[in-house]
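Format notes (please read before filing issues)

Several people have asked whether sequences and structure tokens are stored in separate files. They are not. Every record keeps both together, in the order shown below: the sequence lines, then the token lines. Line labels are part of the format and must not be stripped during preprocessing.
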Amino acid sequence: MSDNEALKKQVWDAIAQVEDPEIGMGLVDLGLVYDLQIDENKKADVTMTFTSMGCPYGPQLKAEVHAAATRVEDVSDAHVEVVFSPAWDPREMASEEAKMLLGIY
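Then the structure lines:
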């Protein structure tokens, strides 16, 4: 595993600890984090969405993802982009564990 891949895994693991306060599950398990890239300057670029466009916790979640990424040693900075396309669909995007907890079979 390259240094960049190892750093990317560390950032994924850090972001996975951020929970949606309404659902009580991690954003990664819910499938709300669409992409993560680490550039040559060790900046994390995160693409994510919310459970709904009007999510009242949206700014808080974005800030928590940014904070989680930048807490990882060697990450120089982070940019978190929120997108709404594709729309979040837990039946397709959530982990199997999250689907079970959400009652999606």
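For reference, the curators noted about this record: Residues 58-71 form the longest helix (14 residues). The mean pLDDT is 95.
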